[in-house]
From TrEMBL:
Positions of region (Disordered): 548-607, 624-658
Signal peptide: 1-26
Organism field: Branchiostoma floridae
Protein name: Kin of IRRE-like protein 3 isoform X2
TM region positions: 515-539
Stretches assigned to the Ig-like domain: 27-126, 135-226, 235-322, 323-403, 408-511
Pfam families according to UniProt: C2-set_2, I-set, Ig_3
GO cellular component: membrane
SUPFAM superfamilies in the record: Immunoglobulin (SSF48726)
Record field: compositional bias (Basic and acidic residues): 570-582, 625-634
Compartment annotation: Membrane
Top-level lineage group: Eukaryota
Keywords, alphabetical: Disulfide bond, Glycoprotein, Immunoglobulin domain, Membrane, Signal, Transmembrane, Transmembrane helix
Length: 658
């Protein structure tokens, strides 16, 4: 490490000693002259300093034109006196050349040297002559339409050195081909062409500038000429908002934004309609005050500036409003009776679109729209309501009365056949629906011999006819008092008006009083007996009647033993063989026997009551000893009802102790 340090110190001293020897042995530049720029008429100094200059040698300056000798030491050549001089401490080798009031002839290369120097140092002086003014822009700069072309020429005259021309669109320079630059016919004149083949609306208002730059920003500033393009183009319209949905009664503003050159005239219209009187047309702003349903639709903003085409913008207004039923039907609609069908349409408007249905008065039954009535009769007459409903709004309705007019209609609401007992009263009811009311209701009676009798309102012998008004028309009642057998027959009710007539046939049957009494007694007896049987079955099934097996004994005496009760296998076998014996079929019911149901009596309508035949075999008396009662573990031997579901008596069999 000490050895390396010693070597570095030795090298430094060696270099210093060598430089001293060189200074002593020869001259060298301490400061070389440097190129400089100067405005014409200003002062400029070119610096030069030489070390090791022998006392006998002089520093020489040479310059334009053609490296002429300017000075030797401090002495200036005669031709350069007055504007050139040497400055600096010559004893230290400083010989600076100063030029006053620089002229164009001063521009060129300068050299500072001496005889002992092996090399020479040169510098260039540039004398700058500023431009007298900005460049000129030549061309048709009048307003032009979009789509047309444009050619402009930028021209600059004078200046030293000649300027470099550049076209700008705002701050963006145009990249032009080399042949766009040309020199003018005049000395120092330069030109640069700009060609725009197709102008657009976006070029309107553009700042086209031509900049002339001499390249010496520290001495002179670039000069610029500007032209603002005036491009005319048709209107472009934008409407805000595009659409709007408002409730009826609200207000809103719509704005029409127009881009055009020159400015356009703006107007509003409603497509297919005139503008509502509540609309305030303020040019670009359309004010709609308290909108109604009729204001809904499409509005147009129209902008025109004389340059086709005309600009259009649209706005769609949707108004939400409660349902409203149009006056498409009257409060009363007359319909002819007997039509195959009738329809009535209800037209309702609203937003959202309402649901339209029909409802008959005092019902909750809804029908579709249009209302269809088929066939048309007096039953469909009445009040109907058209109901329109929309989400978010209360339902509305409109009523109408369907008035059916036409010929009478005799209703089938009463009996067509009436049977009475001789001597009784009979009333035949003829209900007639009609509009207009019938001119008259006539009754016709045809007896068994074919003789026909006519009855009208009033009393004739034993027949009375009277009429009553109803909501649908008239009701005619024919009453036969103390009817006789010969008053039976066919009766007919006929009603007529200006539209036609309708009729209905009745049958009156008069029965003999004795035969009727027999029939009544027979029917009453059968009904009573059936009621008793049903009552006994119900009581038995409910268990309200029970047998006391511990104390009750049979009162039937027997002279011989009774065979044991047949088991279920015996009964089943006999049933399987299909050959039952005797009048009894056995059923196991706690050791009892159930008799076969009695045979039916002849079907005589006049028979009254039922009876059972006597038992063929008389059962013996048995003691009430329960331990000797037949027992069977088989559940099938437990009591069960008879097979045909009828209530039948059972016989309890008990064995008597000997």
């Amino acid at each position: 490490m000490p050895v390396a340090t010693d070597l570095v110190v030795f090298a430094v001293f060696f270099v210093l000693a060598l430089s001293v020897v060189l200074k002593v042995d020869g001259a060298s530049y301490r400061e070389r002259p440097k190129s400089a720029d100067v405005l014409k008429g200003d002062t400029v100094t070119l610096h030069c300093a030489i070390d090791g200059l022998p006392p006998s040698e002089m520093v020489q300056w040479y310059g334009p034109p053609d490296m002429r000798h300017i000075s030797s030491g401090n002495v200036i050549a005669k031709r350069f006196k007055g504007r050139y001089r040497i400055l600096g401490d010559t004893t230290r080798g400083e010989h600076n050349l100063q030029i006053l009031r620089a002229a164009n002839s001063d521009e060129g290369d300068y050299r500072c040297s001496t005889l002992s120097l092996d090399e020479t140092a040169e510098a260039t002086l540039a004398v700058v002559v500023p431009l007298s003014g900005p460049p000129d822009i030549i061309g048709d700069t009048a307003p032009r339409k979009a789509g047309q072309g444009l050619m402009l020429t930028c021209t600059s005259v004078g200046g030293r050195p000649p300027p470099r021309l550049t076209w700008y669109n705002g701050t963006r320079p145009y990249k032009l081909p080399d042949d766009a630059f040309k020199e003018g016919i005049n000395k120092g004149e330069v030109m640069l062409n700009l060609v725009i083949p197709y102008l657009t609306k976006w070029d309107n208002g553009a700042n086209l500038s031509c900049k002339a730059n001499q390249g010496f920003p520290s001495l002179v500033k670039a000069r610029t000429a500007v032209k603002v393009l005036n491009v005319r183009y048709p209107p472009t319209v934008t409407v805000t908002p595009k659409s709007s949905r408002v409730m009826e009664g609200e207000s809103l503003n719509v704005t029409c934004h127009v881009d055009s050159n020159p400015p356009a005239d703006v107007d509003w219209r409603k497509v297919g309609h005139a503008l509502p009187f509540r609309v305030d047309n303020r040019g670009q702003v359309l004010h709609l005050d308290r909108v109604s349903s009729s204001d809904a639709g499409i509005y147009q903003c129209i902008a025109e500036n004389g340059i086709p085409p005309v600009g259009y913008g649209t706005f769609t207004l949707e108004v939400l409003f409660t349902p409203r039923i149009r006056q498409t039907f009257d409060t009363k609609v007359s319909v002819l009776y007997g039509q195959d069908g009738f329809s009535l349409e209800c037209v309702a408007e609203g937003n959202p679109r309402p649901q339209v249905r029909w409802r008959r008065q005092n019902t909750e039954l809804y029908m579709g729209n249009p209302l269809v009535l088929s066939p048309v009769n007096y039953d469909v007459e009445g009040k109907y309501a058209c109901v329109a409903s929309s989400p978010g709004f209360a339902s509305v309705d409109k009523e109408t009365f369907i008035d059916v007019v036409g010929r009478p209609e005799v209703r089938d609401s009463s009996l067509s056949t009436l049977t009475i007992v001789e001597g009784g009263d009979a009333t035949l009811i003829c209900e007639v629906a009609s509009d207009p009311v019938p001119d008259g209701i006539t009754w016709f009676w045809r007896d068994s011999n074919g003789k026909e009798t006519i009855y009208t309102a009033g009393i004739t012998e034993h027949v009375a006819v009277r009429e009553e008004r109803t909501s649908k028309g008239v009701k005619s009642l024919l009453t036969v008092s103390t009817a006789a057998l010969d008053q039976a027959g066919n009766y007919m009710c006929r009603a007529s008006n200006m539209f036609g007539s309708d009729q209905k046939d009745f049958r009156l049957e008069v029965q003999d009083s004795h035969l009727t009494l027999i029939i009544v007694i027979a029917v009453t007896t059968v009904v009573s007996l059936l009621a008793v049987i049903v009552g006994v079955c119900i009581v038995k099934k409910k268990g309200w009647i029970s047998d006391d097996r511990d104390s009750e004994t049979s009162s039937v005496s027997v002279s011989r033993p009774v065979p044991p009760v047949p088991g279920p296998d015996m009964v089943d076998r006999e049933e399987r063989d299909g050959k039952p014996e005797g009048l009894y079929e056995y059923d196991v019911n706690n050791g009892t026997l159930k008799p076969r149901p009695p045979p039916r009596l002849d079907k005589d309508p006049y028979s009254i009551g039922l009876s059972y035949p006597r038992l063929v075999n008389v059962l013996p008396s048995y003691a009430t000893v329960e331990r000797d009662q037949p027992k069977s573990p088989d559940p099938d031997l437990q009591p069960r009802p008879s097979g045909d579901g009828e209530c039948a008596p059972t016989i309890t069999v008990r064995k008597q102790m000997s």
